[in-house]
Amino acid sequence: MARYLTRNRLRRIYKWGGFPVSHDRKLKTDEYDSLHISLEDLPRTTVITNGQYILIEGVDDDHPYVAKVTKLIESDKKKKALVQWFARVGEVPPNKLKLLGREPHPQEIFYYEGPTCEDEIDVESILNTVQVHQSLLDDLRSSSDEEEEPQEEEEEEEEEFCASQASMRTPRKTPVKKATPTTPRTPRHATPSIPSRSLPARQPGSALEEARARLHVSSVPESLPCREQEFQDIYNFVESKVMDGTGGCMYISGVPGTGKTATVHEVIRSLQRASDADDVPAFNFIEINGMKMTDPHQAYVQILQKLTGQKATPDHAAALLEKRFSHAGPKKESTVLLVDELDLLWTRKQNVMYNLFDWPTRRHGRLVVLTIANTMDLPERIMINRVASRLGLTRMSFQPYSFKQLQQIIMSRLNKVKAFEEDALQLVSRKVAALSGDARRCLDICRRATEICEHTSLDPGAPGLVGMSHVMQALDEMFSSAYVTAIRCASVQEQLFLRSVLMEFRRLGLEEATFQQVLVQHQALCRVEGLQPPSVSEALAACQRLGACRLLLLEPSRLGVLQRVRLNVSQDDVLYALKAE
Amino acid sequence: HLQVQTLLRERLCHQQLPQRPEGVDSQHKHLMELLKRTAVHGESNSVLIIGPRGTGKTQLLRCVLAELLAEEDVDKTLLQVHLNGLLQTDDRIALKEITRQLSLENVVGDQVFGSFAENLAFLLEALKKGDRSSSRPVLFILDEFDLFAHHKNQTLLYNLLDVSQSAQTPVAVVGLTCRLDVLELLEKRVKSRFSHRQIHLLPSLSFSQYLQAVQAQLHLPDTTFPDTTFCYDWNASLKVDKSVEAVLLRHFNSTKDFRSLHRLLMAILCRVSVNNPTIKPADLLDASRLLSADAMTNVLHGLSILELCLVIAMKHLNDIYDGEPFNLQMVYNEFKRFLQRKSNSLYNFELPVVMKAFEHLQQLEVVRPVDAAAAVAARAQREYQLVRLMLDHSQIMEALQKYPQCPTDVKQWAASAFG
User: Fold this and answer.
1) B73 contact A CB<8A
2) How does DSSP assign A532-563, residue by residue?
3) Rounded to whole angstroms, how far apart are CA atoms A445 and A473?
4) Residues of A in contact with B158 (CB under 8 A)
5) CA distance linking residue A33 with residue A16, whole number of Å
6) What average pLDDT does the segment A76-83 reach?
7) How far is CA A291 from CA A307, A320, A448, B152, in A?
8) Is the model more confident about A126 or about A424?
9) B144 touching A, CB under 8 A?
10) Taking every annotated instance into account, which residue ranges of this chain make up the domain BAH (chain A) (predicted)?
11) Is there a contact between B166 and A218 if contact means CB atoms under 8 Å apart?
């Protein structure tokens, strides 16, 4: 018979074949042994029994799901079926396919054992039967949750359906109640990982490379120099709370790069060693970071997940944590919670911070909270009274490093690797200490100095020690602002434009002028210099280029010739740059 | 000559990579060493490439990458993620893009599953599990870096830079931007985690180097080009004479970067055809004139006489009222004064016709309303809404000089309001 691709809306009628085989009184369900599907006005009926493979409506008409019927039941007047799901080739994530070790056949299906899919489906979503052949292939078992047994599948095309090509293509007239989850293929068990390399990374060879590896910010030493006092204070605080089984709050502040998070980690490491040796009761350590969250309320979700492994919505997680910290539990361990970047957990009602500081005050909570932020007066500035009072007065402030401390840090990192000259180290420490006291900055500059030393050495085999010149070049690179160089490298018209901006400012006595006024000066200046004055468009383009680099601050360019112009560099710098020509 | 077209267009329009970009050797070396150390030694780093628009930042990066990936073991180990601040306008979108490009396990086909929070947690977990010696290094390239600094809390930047400073998967974060003050945009925590390495690409060509570059751009390779006589003639015709030098000097004074040079050379190349197989200096002159013509003057050439008169009337109002905004009624009165006093050739137009002409000027953005929101709400009557003229007087005078068949009394009126 001819097959038409018409979208004839044919309704499928589902009927049980015969009487119920058994009745479950508890669940109030009836079990049947066969199901009849017939299309409206057509004589043919498909019979489905237990153990047959069926096609189920999928995301779109061309990709139905495949499953095997295990039971046919009726409950509450609704026809349902329990099935065993199979995954088609297209539904398996590519990295699992790679585990197969060979190219899968396009019609191949895999046994899906993920517990995430509901086994009960609405019978109305069954489309048709399908034949599945089990081919004689090796049984490949992957180590992941999804068990894969390769089986060949053959589509059974129904020749007798004349009105539509295959029953998969008839759109449903009645809305289908999706008892199945709409995306049963969501990889709920995806494991986060970056693929690993085939050859291991090269180890450092020369002394300079070794120095560079040690000076990297990430190679944090076991014990931080120059932070012994702070380490002791935090250690005493946490140890006392854990030994007593009480809760408490501590607020640690300091500018970035002063070793706050590293010190707390060190404290926890030594406490864990002590608890392994049974000097201190065992405890849980959890760490959250305000910047690593998309929303303050995600804090609850993360804490719950790290404590118990449960996943929940923020509100539910908050409720569960509340219950956990309020009620006494048998043999409960202390929990030490580190909250990094506390200021990002601020909400208008401040309830996240309130909860974080309130739970330690519960008698049975046994929660010790260590919070880290940058400003010393954060509690007074952004917290309302009750939150600040629960945070308490146990505060610790990490001062920026002095130059001696920076020097000591670098020396202890290098630890007998001879790579730096004495005065070079001193220069770096003094410079960084004068500016910010940030240890990260110091380490990065030293690293850059080693790189420069390596590149500029005449003999690549023996680069020698890092000297003053290298360090000065590194400092120059990393501390400079390139405004003066940028002005010197600008084109003639751009430089003239800057000069006319200065002239116009002097004429007006203001720090701001419109482009039109500057243009007048610019054209006059061009005539003085003997150059052809630019057209308005050209001058606008030059102005835009200077604005893109932020040498000038401009209003939006839709204002055209009426936009106002301001300098982003000081006038002296501009004059200095232009004079040196 | 078709091959000429293909070859040169490929060079000029398709941003074909040169063997080695000129004048940026030290920057090339710096970037190359940095990326090599990440790929081979597993050392994390972050760097910013700063330079004005069109100076070749992306080109430098692509050259370095091409050279780096030529080594087979680097090609097999290095993972790349390319992000652009203009495409990924939000951290949510950026995260999905990163996850998709890294083909992490929560990607099926092309679709990334999970909410924003889940994606972030998943990515951070994945990067945290790696370590220096056994994970493949990841190279993050952030084009238009300054736009990423405008995202909420700068979470993406913080996290990427934090990974580059922790003992996790080795990453290299390369940012490209044209703003010189980009470091001021970073929050103090993000700034502390950034390693402050900057590579500045500032064009420092002298004019003679520029001329050589022009010749090099148009030069056909002797060895690979099929038709050698044509090639020889072409290259011979590329000598620089006085007029060519003058034109190129004007262009060089305006801007030094190569993107606008390519635009100029493309305009010349478009004139090369079968009938016209070589480049002549006149071509260069025409192309230069085309590119440096004033945009608004060209618009004015297309206006009707009535519209032109309205523009001149507005010019006079600007002179009288010293740049204050005016409305249509005032312009119309000024125009009527001209008609009464001086005009013989112009018809005495009615207000609705004048208003239509005025609206046309507004559409062309020759005039703009002072308060755009009120104009849309149309609170005041149309004739009384204040507008400003967006043209400079020099543009109007220049347009009038070249305006075809301009009536003389209009020209005289433009020159002086009183005469």
Assistant:
1) yes
2) PPPPHHHHHHHHHHHHHTTSEEE--GGGGGG-
3) 10
4) 291
5) 8
6) 73
7) 20, 24, 28, 10
8) A424
9) no
10) 46-177
11) yes
- 8 Å CB contact of B105 and A216: no
Query: Is the per-residue pLDDT at A168 higher than 50?
Result: no
- B260: its two tokens: 């606008």
Half-sphere exposure of B416 (CA within 13 A, CB side): 2
Q: What is the DSSP string of A93-144?
A: -HHHHHHH-SPPPTTEEEE---TTS-SEEEGGGEEEE-EEEPP-------SS
Q: Which amino acid is at B292?
A: S
Helix (H, G, I), strand (E, B) or coil at B66: helix
Across the interface, whether the CB atoms of A199 and B193 are under 8 A apart is answered: no
**How many other C-beta atoms are found inside a 10 Å radius of the C-beta of residue B81?**
19
Cβ contact B221:A503 at 8 Å:
no
CA distance B328 to B382: 8
Distance from CA of B122 to the nearest CA of A (A): 6
Q: Of A170, A379, A217, A551, which Cα lies nearest the Cα of B164?
A: A217
Helix axes B281-292, B258-269, angle to 10 degrees: 120
Q: What is the pLDDT of residues B119-144, one digit of tens each?
A: 899 999 999 998 888 888 999 999 99
A212 touches chain B (CB under 8 A): yes
pTM summary value: 0.78
Over residues A244-300, the pLDDT tens digits come to: 988 999 999 999 999 999 999 999 999 999 999 998 999 999 999 999 999 999 999
Q: Do A199 and B73 touch (CB under 8 A)?
A: yes
Which pLDDT score is estimated for A175? 45
Query: Residue B402 belongs to what H/E stretch?
Result: helix B393-402
Residue among B43, B250, B257, B259 with most chain A CBs within 10 A, to mutate? B43
* Sequence-separated (6 or more) residues with CB below 8 Å from residue B417: B316, B319, B320
> Which of residues 184 through 243 in chain B touch A, CB cutoff 8 A?
188-189, 191-193, 195-198, 200, 202-204
Provide φ and ψ at A38, rounded to 5°. -130, 150
Say if CB B52 and CB B203 are below 8 A apart.
Answer: yes
Residue numbers of A between 106 and 165 with CB closer than 8 Å to B: none
Selected residue of B179, B189, B252, B257 to mutate for chain A interface (largest A Cβ count, 10 A): B189
CA distances from A581 to A521, A574, B134 (A): 21, 12, 53
Which residue of chain A comes nearest to B192, CA vs CA? A256
Rounded to an integer, what is the distance from CA A213 to the centroid of its chain?
A: 26
From A108-117, A302-311, B76-85, the region with the lowest mean pLDDT: A108-117
